[in-house]
Amino acid sequence: MAQKGHSSVEEVLLGPGLFRFLKDLKAHNDREWFTENKARYEAEARDPMLRLIGAFSGPLSAISRHFIADPRPTGGSMFRIYRDTRFSKDKSPYKTHLAAHFPHRTVSAGGVHGPGFYLHLEPGGSFAGGGLWHPDADSLLKVRQAIVAKSAAWKTLRKSGLEIEGEALMRVPQGFAADHPFAEDLKLKDFYITTGFTNAQVLAPDFVDQVAAACRQAGPLVAFLCKALDLPW
């Protein structure tokens, strides 16, 4: 029986064509090849990913009703396959992975740079999780201030064993004590937790449940970040 929030196991199952397409795209990352294989991209990669996003709406609401899983092909949770090469030395026109962001319902929450959950599908490098990535300076300051002001809550989160990842400064930022018990955390510029998946796990019938479990694991961190930024959780 399909679980609540799932349309059906068969409908949301990602097929092996997904990884075959992404591997082929990596080997032929040019517009001519992609144009010739666009129908294959849509059938084997884009459309299954959109169905997965739609199926994840229910499980995501069970974690927090303030986050969105939007299965629209344009303007929804799924990131475009096209790379922005304007400021990159790498001029490859296409991403060789699929990704989706599940942002906070509050429009002003920062979009991809606000608290949210994330799914990344790539041959041998798939993962899901949640947190705060590359926040603006004001949001980053508020999170650091919350770590200091709510040290007990942060200590509880840290003692749970969750591994918080992110880029970090070399030194504790100005305005914070260098000898603070959470000095290393105050150096962080990102705050997120991820769970990796094998290719087989991604293609398994219960993958939506696995994504939900990864996001639930990141939930306490995302909840702390939301409260630090005065966002409902």
TrEMBL record:
NCBIfam families: TIGR02453 family protein
Stated name of the protein: TIGR02453 family protein
Record organism: Geothrix limicola
